[in-house]
Design brief:
The structure is a homodimer of 210-residue chains.
Chain A lengths: L7 H19 L4 E2 L1 H8 L3 H9 L11 E2 H12 L5 E6 L3 H8 L2 H4 L2 E8 L16 E2 L3 H7 L4 E4 L3 H13 L4 E4 L12 E4 L2 H15 L1
Parallel strand pairs in A: 3-4, 3-6, 4-5, 6-7, 7-8
Antiparallel strand pairs in A: 1-2
Bound molecules: nicotinamide-adenine-dinucleotide (NAD) (2 copies).
Chain B binds a DNA duplex (30 and 30 nucleotides) through helix 3.
Chain lengths: 210, 210
DNA sequence: GAACCAATGTGAATAAGGGCACAACGTTGG
DNA sequence: CCAACGTTGTGCCCTTATTCACATTGGTTC
């Protein structure tokens, strides 16, 4: 079933399942049913079974899913049984905060390059030992350090230009924190993180729901 | 049409449209067609027209939408023609970064309270002038300062407990940065921001797409 | 003021996604 | 070894979302 078209929503949920399963693992839960897992993830049990069924049969009928096993299966599905090298572009507030954050490494995402235009920042050493490069050296450094994913944390105005440079350097995956819709060729996959949209959504619910 | 059930996806898109329209406004674009706006937002033109049609008729046939006007209409729809008071809980890496960030105020979201448990942080004055309160005072301060939305930026382990306190204090909207699924009553609306899910999604695409 | 133009608003068609309900099938207990 | 149990995997249906296509209508031109 590996070649059916998988809904994007399924991929997102798999990530959530994995996170929850990893927690369960730490609590020494060995086996879990779709029903209990569903409750903990806030979804429908059939949804979980169907999501997993796209990729194979991982459960045991009458019993449930072996937690440790399922974590590994999902990792395999998502391409997480390896590490990914990231490049951060823009070391302001949020860029530095992300690099300082330890959670990414724990999940196999490793910052191996960092760029900025600010002369004050270029050459500085970051807490993780990385030295900041000038954005002019982006293509060269990215190829050299085998970076797979670019993270954009520059002001909105610079985002498109940075994206162009990343693509020129052969990057096919971008995580974009700038609040603009960046345009990329089909070969490149962009995910946007925009807190303001989430806040707007809350505001809408508060205004109408009451 | 104000009372039809509106898809959540529509609300999210409205927020994107608004952001784009505000940019256009700064470039002195007065009128725009659904087709041009669609291209800039990366969606289908009919989608835009239908999204807007849920709430009224804002365009002019044969011409398009008046940009400044439409921004105001969308603000009205989303409940953004007013300000919202936010409380930040957890002033670590990301919490401080968010408070320092000016973009929220620009969109009408104002931090009016901040909480932490760390004695080193309680009592400190933040760049925006706010003094950090201890989380034990949460309910009292939140009611006093008329906070509408709570932002959780604590470690994952504390998130559920913080959410409970927020709800007890009468909060009905939560923006959650901790990578856990928090459980809340129906009256409360939660939006999660989880970068790792987005990264996992990129990893999946890079692994399979090639 | 009539005829043309251009882009909206919308009903109908299509596509996608989610959930129910049950048959299939390991497991466990007798 | 067989029967009773419990949970998976999945066909089918229903609901929701997106796209198409065109009639509608305000603006513009002559
Ligand atoms: N900080 C937040 O909490 C937050 C929240 C939501 C959205 N964002 C978005 O994230 C982005 C960054 O926000 P921030 O608060 O970190 O901003 P910031 O101003 O603190 O940092 C931006 C950094 O990008 C660098 N930069 C500018 N142009 C560049 C270029 N062409 N190439 C490389 N680096 C460049 C600057 O030198 C600076 O170091 C913005 O688009 C912002 O809207 C931030
Ligand atoms: N920083 C990032 O880039 C980033 C990225 C993704 C996710 N996150 C998530 O955001 C959350 C915060 O991350 P961080 O890097 O800012 O962590 P951090 O450790 O820097 O900050 C956490 C803060 O929360 C405070 N805190 C702990 N328990 C509390 C409680 N019960 N009530 C109030 N405050 C409490 C701590 O004193 C500390 O100041 C974490 O859940 C993390 O997984 C952060």
């Amino acid at each position: 079933m590996k070649f059916a078209k998988i809904p994007m929503a399924t991929i997102n949920r798999l990530s959530v399942y994995m996170r929850t399963l990893q927690e369960l693992l730490e609590e020494d839960v060995e086996v879990i049913s779709s029903e209990r897992l569903a409750k903990q993830c806030g979804v429908n049990p059939a949804q979980i079974r169907k999501d997993l069924a796209y990729f194979g049969e991982f459960g045991v009928r009458g019993v449930g899913y072996h937690v440790a096993d399922l974590v590994n299966q999902i990792k395999e599905i998502l391409g997480l049984s390896r590490t990914w090298n990231l490049a951060m572009v823009g070391l302001g507030n949020i860029g530095s905060s992300l690099i300082r954050h330890g959670n990414f490494v724990k999940h196999g995402y490793i910052f191996t390059a960092a760029f900025d235009v600010d002369p004050q920042k270029v050459g500085k050493k970051l807490p993780n030992g990385l030295v900041v490069n000038h954005v002019d050296e982006l293509e060269e450094v990215i190829r050299e350090r085998d970076v797979h994913i670019g993270v954009i944390a520059t002001p909105a105005g610079a985002a498109q230009s940075v994206a162009n440079q990343l693509i020129l350097a052969g990057i096919n995956g971008i995580l974009n924190f700038a609040p603009v819709q960046i345009q990329v060729p089909d070969c490149c996959h962009v995910e946007n993180v925009d807190f303001t949209i989430k806040l707007d959504c809350i505001a809408y619910h508060l205004s109408t729901g009451v």
